[in-house]
Amino acid sequence: MTVTTVHSSAPARSGFSAGEYVTCLIGIVWREGLRFLHQRERFVSALVRPLVWLFIFAAGFRQVLGISIIPPYETYILYEVYIAPGLMAMIQLFNGMQSSLSMVYDREMGNMRTLLVSPLPRGYLLFCKLLAGTAVSVLQVYAFLVIAWFWDITPPPMGYLTVLPALILSGLMLGALGMLISSGIKQLENFAGVMNFVIFPMFFASSALYPLWRVEEGSPWLAYLCETNPFTHAVELVRFALYGKLNWVSLAVVGGCTAVFMIGAILAYDPSRGFVRRGPGGEA
Description:
It is found in: Cell inner membrane; Membrane. Keywords: Cell membrane, Membrane, Transmembrane, Transmembrane helix, Transport. About 70% of the residues lie in helices and about 0% in strands. Helix 5 (about 120-150) packs across helix 6 (about 160-180). The relative contact order is 0.12. By secondary structure, the chain is an all-alpha fold. It has eleven helices and no strands.
């Protein structure tokens, strides 16, 4: 008996094409956008918090917290104008944590449970998810700027464009931080408590609500803590960009923290070495 060996002439597939990566990115971003449109209460809640600070708290603090001429401002400003960049960053901070909350849910019973075991690189999938969340946060920030415009918070017209790269970078950093935190959360019930331990210290120990020179007058060690807070640099990056200027120190800190948080999240979501371990059936 003669045995004939048939050799396939089709080359073995070694990876994915650029089109397949783009299709994956579009699918994840499109899904996040549809979820955002269908969850109108999420959009409203994202705007309620900064608007409460802008309309109510700012009116009470205006006479207490006088703002001197500090960069990037070239004249005296109202307190509402000063806190506007901090409130923009606050929207991104809460959105990053909410996106991470959905990661905890999706990882257990949603579409991310399927995506994380797909052949696509896990780091790329997490980056797509991060990019989708950042796109949603940027839309929320611009909606806030439209409302703030009626409250006489009017940066230079070009500022609405120059602030876009800063919003994208700060959104990526805060989203990556939330993703890193979500990697160690096993149950949704525990995530709310962890969020409070992250959001409120980061927000209040920053330059979002008051300049650092005024913090230093009251407590030098607290001012040092605010200076080392990545959220402070996200606020300052947005503040300078809104007036067509660039804070190089904040740019370096935000860019570096984005890389560190993203690498940490990718490693943490790796079942072989991170916090997300494989179950008995081998699933992540």
